[in-house]
Amino acid sequence: MKGLVIAVLVLTCAFAIAVGVPAQDAAPKTHSMTGCLKAGTAPDTFMLTDLEKGPKQVGIVSSDVKLAGHVGHKVEITGTAMPEDAAMKENMNVPKSPHYMHVTAMKHIAPTCP
Fold it and tell me: Of 5, 27, 33, 88, whose CB is crowded by the most CB atoms within 10 A?
């Protein structure tokens, strides 16, 4: 009987660990993209265009940094990707885009865009 209880406990722990692994892998990963910061059509909305690599355009859903003073500049944004449904739920005015991000940092690269 004692062996059965130990076996059940081991299997329960193994199952709990296995279930927890996908949740960790699904966490958004921070990444950076470089391009031209443009204003969106709605007030206080922004997008990144003319990217060096990756998607054609990035819709900026939200930002921890002030972006307005860098419109028209080449910048590198860092943040986490968001699925389209979550992006639209958080900010329905975000410009339509193939990729959406929450920006956590921005680095100024150049005062003009190509």
Answer: 33
Q: Which pair of structure tokens corresponds to residue 91? A: 């900010």
Domain extent for 73: 30-110
In a domain, 78, yes or no: yes
Angle formed at CA 101 by CA 23 and CA 21, multiple of 5 degrees: 10
Q: Is residue 59 in a domain?
A: yes
8 A C-beta contact, residue 46 and residue 60: yes
Q: Which two tokens stand for residue 113?
A: 């865009």
Q: What is the pTM of this model?
A: 0.74
Strand partners for 78: 32, 105
Sign of the C-alpha dihedral computed for residues 81, 87, 91 and 96 taken in this order: positive
